[in-house]
Amino acid sequence: MNEKLNIIYICFYVLLLADICFCDIDKLDTDEFDSFVTANPLVLILFKASKECPSCNKALEYLDRLPQPDLVQTEILKRYVMDDVIADRLGALDYPSIVYFRNGNPALYNGKLGSVDDIPELLEWLTQASQVATQDLFEDSFEHLTQASTGATTGDWFVLFYKPGCDDCMKILPSVESAAISVKYRMNFAKVDVEVNKKLAERFKITTCPYGILFKQGKMYPYEPGKFDTQSLIAFTETWYKNVKSSPVPKEPTAFDILTESIAMYIKQQVENPNKNWMLILGVPSVCLLLVIVIVYVFRKPEDSRQKHD
Questions:
Q1: Which pTM value belongs to this model?
Q2: In a domain? residue 193
Q3: Which of 30, 60, 76, 142 has an alpha carbon 20 to 30 Å from 119's alpha carbon atom?
Q4: Domain enclosing residue 185, as ranges
Q5: pLDDT tens digits, 110-166
């Protein structure tokens, strides 16, 4: 009997030294990754190093013990992935890393999972993160939601301007979402697709992506730290923005602004035209006349309205 027990103990210690973890979490293959995280509402992915990684195995063991959060009704599916390319694509640069997908939207977990004591913190985060915190803004909703140029009664906003086809942009979105989750009761986080919302890109003079701006009380603060990790983003929105030069938020262009800009662009194009002499003689005076008529109409309209009212 003692010999059998000794054999069992020896086998146990051999497995412990080899750092082998037996758990019910399945490995997700590379070719199934994208379809799996988009087809299922809630997916929790642990990224493990492809080489020997004791801390990764420990994290996997604790993730296996992780219960379903009480306030999250939909089952969270847990998988682990060993693929450096996918991990890099999601900004999961350190192993082990945890990424939480909500209907395909990733959030990078900023906490630890190195012991049983870390499980309650992860459970709380999963509850807070079950709904996507980063809003999508568009040309027809930007000013209404942010009230950026009027002083903002809707609070402060950190807005990321990005391009879907930009690898650097897509890599930081999970960290931006993580920051949005951490401060969602104190700060609004949003993103703007500059390819879809070109007028917003022009309004804020966005020439490079990714580019972040903090809109706060009628002023805007460009994000200058360079690093788009979760802690740097939170630090900037809370205190570090005071170290950068702010500028007034440009007003939303009116229909008249757009018209005058179009006319100015037309005149510029005609001046650069090889047949500019004829175009200047025939076209520009007509455009200028139209501009004068518009200006007179705009400034006389309030007076006419008052006279009719009287």
A1: 0.77
A2: yes
A3: 30
A4: 136-248
A5: 999 989 999 999 999 999 999 999 999 999 999 999 998 886 678 999 999 999 989
